[in-house]
Amino acid sequence: MSGWTYVWSNMKHRAFLTVLTVMAVTITVALFSLLLMSKDGVEQGARKGYGPFELVIGADGSESQLVLNTFYRVGAPTGNIPLQLLDEIRSSGEADTAFGMTTGDSHNGFPIVGVDPAYFMTRYEDRTLAAGKLYSGQGEVTVGAAAAKALNLKVGDSFSGAHGLVAHASGGHIDTGHSEDDHDDEEHEETSAHMDHAGDAHESFLYTVVGILPRLNTADDRAIFTTMDYAWAVHATDEAHREITAIMIKPGSLLGAQSLKLEYDALDNVQAVYSSKAVADVLNVMDSGSQLLMIVMLICALLAASTLLLALTSSIQERKRDVGLLRLIGKSRAYILSCLIGEGIALTAAGIVLGLALSRLAAWWLGDFMFTETGVQVQPLQMASNEWQLIAVALLLGLVASVGPAFRVYRTDALTLFRN
């Protein structure tokens, strides 16, 4: 009888324990794999999230909030800055390219971003659109691939926006997050009147889809783009009081970036932020959270190893007679030891294969939802960073869990095993 035949017969004989053990390993490996793929997705998205725009200028507030809202379409803007700052930066000679951006409105939760169409050529170079063309006139929009899919938008469709980033699908009214008890009757009436006026203004301004962007694998996939002046048109802002949300700058040189940062940091209610530094700060915070999650996952791995150990230990008494018989017919101790350890490794390997397959299936099934809702993009067809180490550690745990029970039988005298 070959070693693998013996191992397979043992596994079939204890089918329930075998399935239970493999399931424990499968779930643990799948969770670890999904965590690693998600972590890779966050890091890759962060690294290419701001493109060539090493500097961003916006209203005073959190640096991370400014960068996250400007490039990753996350959270609310820190405020507005005068439009004239954009003209000053462009005429300074320190910027290779600078683009203003207006945001703050949305359609069914997807942000409407006003920016010069040249932004796409600067960041993504020449790409063919999935459908239609880039916007050029007021009220025209080009929709990101993920947003178009989620909203089922096609070229020629029209819609109205809503103020804020969290909006109900019907009517464009915003959720203020406050109850009526938080205000007296007079303040509540004023707020309601203001919201009704804002809602009417947004509902009366129609956007027409003229194009769908290709898949860009950045947060731009989850946005709706239009001309920068849409915000001034919606809110009826006169030319003297026009403001923008942020200015994205591709510096002409490192010295130019430093000069612009020092100059605009010195202005009241204005901040200049290095994009890479703000992103690094966010990743450091996320690393702390992922480390805590990793500890929980390690506990799960130890539980899976314990399940494997218990499954192998519980079958020792049952195997003693079989092993004694094998020894009496001339099978070596090495053969028996390799079979006993091989069973644990086989169970672990089966769990690893199924776990990796399950994680890929989950990533494929949840991929679009995760990207649309969180901006995290997973790559189910690629091995995640440290996934080979995960496989090696899982096999090592399977080996360690198998050695103890195997040696308990291996070191017992053959006649004793047979009598027992």
UniProtKB/TrEMBL annotation:
Annotated stretches, region: Disordered: 170-195
One GO cellular component term: plasma membrane
Primary site of residence: membrane
InterPro entries the record matches: ABC-4/HrtB_transporter (IPR051125), ABC3_permease_C (IPR003838)
Protein family per UniProt: Belongs to the ABC-4 integral membrane protein family. HrtB subfamily.
Keyword presence, Repeat: no
Transmembrane intervals: 15-37, 292-313, 334-358, 388-410
Membrane topology: Multi-pass membrane protein
PANTHER family referenced in this protein's UniProt entry, alphabetically: ABC TRANSPORTER PERMEASE, ABC TRANSPORTER, MEMBRANE PROTEIN
Compartment(s) where it occurs, according to its Swiss-Prot or TrEMBL record: Cell membrane
Residue stretches making up the ABC3 transporter permease C-terminal domain: 294-412
Keywords (A to Z) from UniProt: Cell membrane, Membrane, Transmembrane, Transmembrane helix
One Pfam family matching this protein: FtsX
Function comment: Part of the ABC transporter complex hrt involved in hemin import. Responsible for the translocation of the substrate across the membrane.
Protein name stated in the entry: Putative hemin transport system permease protein HrtB
Organism field: Paenibacillus paeoniae
Subunit structure: The complex is composed of two ATP-binding proteins (HrtA), two transmembrane proteins (HrtB) and a solute-binding protein.
